[in-house]
Design brief:
The chain is an alpha/beta fold. The chain contains four helices and five strands, in the order βββααβαβα. Helix 3 links the parallel strand 4 and strand 5. It is globular and about 35 Å long.
């Protein structure tokens, strides 16, 4: 299983999915982390400088492609459209209160991570 967590520093969860500096990608097998890497965010509309009308046209294709091998994506904040788009392609999306990436991953692996989609932004 593969889990991506939006992060600015490789340790804490970024406040906004699209504006995160990157993603911590965890490969997990039998409940144990097998590998962990930080991938710079060059995929989201925000990272590519899109906003307003340009952002609406983007449709999240590049980030969906970049995270296509992930089972779940975790962030502290996330727009409603990307939340829905991730779920539409079969990737679990979580908006969480946690700020520590390791703790959020641990909660996810124990099926104890609480999703707060109501905290998403409109864009």
């Amino acid at each position: 299983m593969r889990v991506a967590i939006a992060s600015d520093d490789g340790k804490t969860i970024a406040p906004h999915f699209g504006k995160a500096r990157g993603f911590i990608i965890y490969d997990v097998e039998d409940g144990k982390v097998q590998s962990e890497k930080f991938v710079e965010n060059t995929f989201t509309g925000h990272a590519r400088g899109l906003s307003g009308a340009d952002h609406a046209v983007d449709r999240h294709g590049p980030i969906l492609q970049a995270l296509k091998d992930c089972n779940a994506v975790i962030s502290h904040g996330m727009g409603r459209r990307i939340y829905a788009d991730l779920r539409a392609v079969g990737i679990e999306a979580f908006v969480v209160n946690e700020t520590d990436a390791s703790e959020a991953l641990s909660l996810y692996l124990r099926n104890a991570l609480t999703d707060h989609p109501e905290r998403g932004c409109e864009r």
